[in-house]
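Supplementary Methods, section 5.1.

A reviewer requested that the exact input to the structure prediction be made available. We therefore reproduce it here, unchanged from the version used in the analyses.
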Amino acid sequence: MIDHDALFKAVIAEFFLEFLQLFFPDLAADLDPASIVEKEQEIMTDIKGGQTNRVDLIREVKVDNEPSLVLILVEPQSYDDKNFSKRLFRYVSRLYDKYDLPVFPVAVLSYASPKAKAPNSFQVGIRNYKTISFNYETIQLNQLDWQEYADKPNPIASAFLAKMPVKKKERVKLKLVALTKLTELGLNPAQQRLLTGFIDTYLDLNFKEEVKFAEELSKIEGEKKEAVMELTTSWERKGIIQGKREGIKEGIIEGKREGEINLLVKQLTRRYGPLTSAEESGVQGLEQEQLEGLAEAILDFQSREEFTIWLDKAQS
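The structure derived from this sequence is encoded cell-by-cell as follows.
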C-alpha cells in the first residue's frame, strides 16, 4: 500500500524552498535560504485518543525583516480527517511551547474527496466567548486548477499537477506537460527520479492512454523528446515495453500503426505466450478503431480463449 504522507513529505522536503516560493511567494521572498535548518522529528502523543503521530517536516528559518526565527510546519494529509484541525492545533501548541517561536502551519490536503473546501481554523470557547482561535494555511489540491500551474517553472508545481483535478480526456496531456516541465528545470537525476515516481504514482495511465501519450510525445522535436523518454519509466514498469528501449524507438514513439501493433503483440505474448501466426496476422489486420478496442479489452481478458473469441468477432 502506498504511504501517501511519506511520498508527499519526501518531495516537499527535497524542494522545501520551492514549495514556499510556489504557494507563499511573499514569505519566500523575505526568507534567507541559507538559514533553513531541518529540525528533529517530533513525536506527538494523543493521550486521550491513545495515538502517536510523528511530525516529520519542521524547518527553522529566518525572515530578513524579523529578528526572530520562524518554524514552518508542513503536514501532508491524504485523507479527510474530521479531527485534523484539532490535531494540528495540538502539534503547533507543543512546538510553540518547546521552541518559544512563532509557528507557520501549512496543511497539504491531497485527498480526492470530499471536494468541499476544507476548514482552516480551530476554535475553543463557551457560548460567545472564544478563548482560543487557531488558524492555519491549507493547500487543498482537489480545489486547484492544473492549468494555472502547468507553466510555472517549479518542481513542486510539476509534481502536484498529478494530484489536481483533471478531465479523463486531458490525462495524457497533463502527464506530458508535467514530465516535459521536469526536463526544463535543471534537476539532478535523483531529483528527477523522485518527481517522476510521484507523477507516475498519481497519474497512472492505462494502456490506451500510454499509446496516446507516446503518439503525442512523437510530435515533440529533438532533445526535448529524448529527455522526456528518459523520464518515462511507467512503460517498463507496466510491461508495455518490457525494458526494451528499441521497442520505444521503433514502435509507438514514432506514432506509427506498426508500433501500436507491436506493443499489443508483446503484451499478449507476455500474458499468454507466443501467438500463433493466425493470431498475430489477425491483430495486424485490425482497423485502427479495433486496435484501440483491443488495447482496452486486453486489460479485461481472463484467459487466452477470451482473447481468441474477441479476435474472431473482430474479424467477422
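The beta strands are 37-38, 42-46, 51-55, 58-62, 69-77, 103-109, 121-126, 129-135, 137-140. These observations are discussed further in the main text.
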